[in-house]
UniProtKB/TrEMBL annotation:
EC class (word): hydrolase
SUPFAM superfamilies on file: HAD-like
Keywords (A to Z) from UniProt: Hydrolase
PROSITE patterns according to UniProt: COF_1 (PS01228)
Gene that this sequence comes from: yxeH
Protein known as: HAD family hydrolase
Superkingdom to which the source organism belongs: Bacteria
Gene Ontology MF: a single term: phosphatase activity
GO cellular component terms, A-Z: cytosol
EC nos: 3.1.3.-
Length: 257
């Protein structure tokens, strides 16, 4: 099969556990990119968070951000498609988090808002290259929301009973997100395929966590990282080595070259 598009998760996939791109991974991605294959980073991160990775890889193109809620061009910030909602739709969880002193954040297409910061969150945001904008009341935001995030996994059990009739919850290794019901990496890639006039059989996708599941099942070849949960590995077409063993590089050398 001749693959034309590579969809790549970031955390736990491209990056090792130290949050680093290894030289082997960089060299392989550049090799893919220079061969004419579209490289689409598909991540829960925003463009600003992903920019250092794009620069290190030396690539530009299409980015699937906010776990599929926003699809855009990285060079001119043109939004190709978005799955968004109004902040009022998460008013109950905002109030719950405030009442129980749980850290949360709100992402629009390009900005990242918080109402407070402590030392732990400051360090966590630095790790993910997040630059928060302090806002006294996020419920007054007028821009459409791409993602609402509960940043404290240890203390979110109580909010699971809160019903979201028009939204859905998703998670990665660090955060719990509330996004548009149609927002996931596969639905975003559908929009990319339409724009590029490609078929899903021409996609290779690589990921490591449950927010990658739809993408792995959608792609012509879905590859799970060796560090992925076992049930995710079972649903992938193949499994590569872990993110600490250059799993992305190993997979691409095997299936593309």
């Amino acid at each position: 099969m001749s693959y034309k598009l590579l969809a790549l998760d970031v955390d736990g996939t491209l990056l090792n556990d130290d949050g680093v791109l290894t030289q082997k991974t960089i060299d392989t991605i550049k090799k893919v990119y220079n061969s004419g294959i579209q490289v689409v980073i598909s991540t829960g991160r925003s463009l600003n968070q992903t920019r250092p990775i794009l620069d290190e890889l030396g690539i530009e193109g299409i980015l699937v951000s906010h776990n599929g809620a926003t699809t855009l061009r990285t060079d001119n910030k043109e939004i190709i498609h978005e799955f968004s909602y109004d902040i009022k739709e998460v008013a109950d969880i905002v109030r719950y988090c405030r009442k129980h002193d749980i850290q949360f954040s709100v992402c629009t297409a390009f900005d990242f808002y918080v109402e407070r910061l402590d030392n732990y969150q400051t360090d966590l945001y630095k790790r993910f290259n997040l630059v928060p904008i302090m806002h006294s009341d996020v419920l007054s935001l007028t821009d459409k929301v791409m993602k609402f995030t509960v940043d404290d996994q240890q203390r979110v059990d109580g909010w699971r009973d809160i019903k979201f009739s028009n939204l859905r919850k998703t998670s990665d290794s660090f955060f719990q997100d509330i996004i548009h019901p149609n927002a996931h990496k596969a639905s975003a890639l559908e929009q990319v395929l339409y724009k590029l006039n490609m078929d899903k059989s021409e996609i290779i996708a690589i990921g490591d966590f449950y927010n990658d599941l739809e993408m792995l099942e959608f792609a012509g070849l879905g590859i799970a990282m060796g560090n992925a949960p076992d049930d995710l590995k079972e649903k992938a077409d193949v499994v590569t080595t872990s993110n600490n063993e250059d799993g992305v590089s190993h997979a691409l050398e095997k299936y593309l070259f």
